[in-house]
From TrEMBL:
One of its GO terms (biological process) is thymine catabolic process. The keyword NAD applies. This is methylmalonate-semialdehyde dehydrogenase (CoA acylating). One of its GO terms (molecular function) is methylmalonate-semialdehyde dehydrogenase (acylating, NAD) activity. It holds the Pfam family Aldedh. It comes from Pycnococcus provasolii. Belongs to the aldehyde dehydrogenase family. Residues 2-447 form the Aldehyde dehydrogenase domain. GO terms for cellular component: mitochondrion. Its EC number is 1.2.1.27. Keywords: NAD, Oxidoreductase. It is an enzyme of class 1 (oxidoreductase). The keyword Oxidoreductase applies. It comes from the Eukaryota.
Amino acid sequence: MCTPQEFEDAVAGAKEAAATWRHVPVSARQRVMLKLQQLINENKDELAKSISLEQGKTISDAHGDVFRGLEIVEQACAAGWLSEGHCVHNVARGVDTMAIREPLGVTAGICPFNFPAMVPLWMFPLAAATGNSMVLKPSEKDPGATMMLAEMATEAGLPPGVLQVVHGAHDVVNAICDHPTIKAVSFVGGDAAGKHIYSRACANGKRAQVNMGAKNHAVVLPDADPEATAKALAGAAFGAAGQRCMAIGVIVTVTGGDMGVRDRLVDKLAQLGDSLKVGPASDDATDVGPLISPEAKQRALAIVEKSVGSEGAKLALDRRTVALEPPFDKGNFFGPTIITDVTPDMTCYREEIFAPAVSVVAVNTLDDAISLLNANPYGNGCGIFTSSGSAARHFVANVDVGQVGVNVPIPVPVPYFSFTGSRGSFHGDLNFYGKNGVAFYTQYKTVTSNWKFSASDGMSGLHGVGASQS
Ligand code: NAD
């Protein structure tokens, strides 16, 4: 936990570093990113092991965490192209105007617990590649990966101060939002913190990009490939113990009035969910690790209990209180759980559970499904499973969600695009990474120059030589 003085020192260090770093040639910044990419690759096993130990996700999920972050470092390696501005020659006689992309100065990043490598890597490499410094606050629950990445950044040649890691929780976040030196805040986390940070940072004149919670729906049409769809949904709903902002939290089965369509899908999903091994990440056979904390487990249990107990939902698979052998019997384990007969008023539909518990809602038509999705306050991700191209196209054209998958359960795009969560899942104008990410960390300066040419221009030196000889 950093003290107010340590925070001030960190911001002062970032300010000093930003003043120099912005003038470092873009090719040199690019070389730092290339070296960072190499170091992360060389140390990815160590990083993944550390994440798994600290956060509890399986080694393969931890590798995914590192890999998805590494992709943004690779984007940052193209710092030259990312820094391109534009120019119009001869806007008037002898006059040219160019727009130069410039860094903002000191930026800040605030991270959640669930992707301790990926989310910091969404932030500081692109900020640094475009000439900024960054004050970065990892989640207080798992700061280890950020510390390893910061060491690698230093080894890669990032000058002291360009990345300043600060530790803490609410007080440090508020100090970031209030500090006049910090020009922009990148945040990824839950709704309460996100809304607070967006309004506080904006009130203080900062740019903000704020990714928040989600309730991602997967719509399944009757013509979807049953095996592939159930497998994809099991991975997206139960993988990473459901602690993904892009986890599938709701499956919408389009039945056309035949509930057998829903039942067959739920049966397959239940078989898959039942076959997953719940346990500690230290066991190579584990598919579903623990939740982050006892509070997270209690919260998930309470949501499911309320939905089933007093609100009328049913359970098609109930592994909420999966029993493990000591010493893991007291762990935060919560196994794959499928809640059916869910309606939009129920708690399990309204809340982000952030555990491997998925709600199943049955509707009659594809348009009913689209209306359901569009009425949900969140807009992070969604998917449709079908073998009909025209049905998929109709869905894509009419659904109001930032990231859409067609037979793809977790449609996070590669970083030549941006992470385009929308509506209640995102506050701000410029999304993370891709072209929007570059725009977020830079601002344009336009320069208009007047250089009218006459025949004697450039010849004054010659004239001077001639004069001395005569
Ligand atoms: P969180 O909101 O509890 O914490 C995120 C960060 O905000 C932490 O650094 C924390 O210290 C700080 N914080 C928390 N409450 C605060 C407050 N009241 N005031 C000031 N700062 C505060 O989130 P989490 O539990 O770490 O992460 C899980 C959440 O993040 C989920 O809702 C998930 O959907 C979301 N998430 C979203 C995305 C996305 O891209 N949309 C990605 C990952 C996680």
